[in-house]
Design brief:
- The protein is of the alpha+beta class.
- The protein contains 1 helix and 12 strands.
- Strand 8 and strand 9 form a beta hairpin.
- The N terminus is likely disordered.
């Protein structure tokens, strides 16, 4: 009985010479190419390197964006506090006062509590009458008719600056 891996194929049954012979020696030529399962060490190293590179770059990006986000958030909450004081003054038909304590780094509506200014954010107020104010407490008067008396508030970090401008007639608060 012939081995299953050894066969002789003939074009003509009368000729004794084989035209094609498959044996154990050259069996690997006819094997499937998808027999290899898994990954090579080189492929795993390349994937791990790419993951480390992407993680490192995203960490650097997020760390650089964090101070800018704190500055924007502080500017938004400070301008919202001034708008809230304007709304309360119109609803209750009485004036309100927004304070900015530059020494203790707090701001809020008088009698309603205060919020902190983060330590990495610098602040100054430019008043039309008094000029630049860097120390002490600055008060923004909000009238029952909707008018607001106050200067331009400037917030900045080492990389970015934001100013809050107040329209004295309309009471509009604009962040630039």
């Amino acid at each position: 009985m012939k081995n299953i891996y050894q066969r002789n194929l003939h074009l003509n049954p009368r000729t004794p010479e084989p035209c094609l012979r498959i044996s154990m020696v050259n069996r690997h030529l006819y094997a499937k190419k998808n027999d290899n399962k898994g990954f090579t060490l080189l492929e795993i190293i390349i994937v791990l390197f790419l993951i480390a590179l992407i993680t490192g770059m995203s960490t650097i990006f997020l760390l650089n964006a964090l101070p800018s986000n704190k500055l924007n958030a502080t500017a938004r909450t400070l301008s919202a506090t001034i708008r809230q004081a304007r709304t309360l003054a119109q609803i209750h038909n009485e004036g309100k006062t927004v304070f900015i304590d530059l020494d203790s780094r707090k701001y809020g509506i008088v009698g309603l509590g205060s919020k902190d200014i983060p330590s990495e954010i610098s602040i100054k107020v430019t008043d039309p009458m008094s000029g630049e104010i860097l120390k002490g407490t600055y008060e923004i008067a909000v009238h029952s008719g909707g008018g607001v008396e106050g200067g331009t508030i400037q917030l900045w970090t080492s990389k970015k600056a934001v100013s809050i401008q107040i329209d004295p007639v309309l009471g509009a608060v604009v962040i630039k």
